[in-house]
């Protein structure tokens, strides 16, 4: 969010609210209102009231923790129960910096779930290494219908899931400007 990584960051308790302004190509500006909801089961009852008016649901998991991935289905069901098909679902696998030796969730697992739940796109990120974080927010902004380049393209993107290339982008390093 703030182009920094905090080693001492504590997990979200309840709900956290953030604003992010992004400047897109073609002189388009978007202000994202981000509601960071706790992933713990005890906070699950709070989620529906925050989902109600959302356009996008970013559902995150830890690529080194299969249990976090397996729990995505129930969170996505909650989103769809509240919003139906009138919400863009994005899957985000975090901690890609930890490498394949600690990986418990494969890219194939993520792609299969993306197809199963109809997620708009899926991406792996590393907040620690600042990998694909800026791209994630950019893709979220671009997926909103009012920021599509034209209605035909927006409709095409809406009906065709997209998987973002998760290979390392050397142009986006920890020292680069982000979020």
Automatic annotation (TrEMBL):
InterPro entries per the UniProt record, alphabetical: P-loop_NTPase, Rab, Small_GTP-bd, Small_GTPase
Gene3D superfamilies for this protein: P-loop containing nucleotide triphosphate hydrolases
Keywords: GTP-binding, Nucleotide-binding
Residue ranges crossing the lipid bilayer per the database entry: none
Chain positions covered by the region annotation Disordered: 148-179
Subcellular location, principal: membrane
A GO cellular-component term linked to this record: endomembrane system
Its membrane topology: Lipid-anchor
Compositionally biased spans, kind Basic and acidic residues: 153-163
Alphabetized GO MF terms: GTP binding; GTPase activity
SMART domains: RAB, RAS, RHO
Protein's cellular compartments: Endomembrane system
Protein name in UniProt: Ras-domain-containing protein
Organism from which the protein derives: Suhomyces tanzawaensis NRRL Y-17324
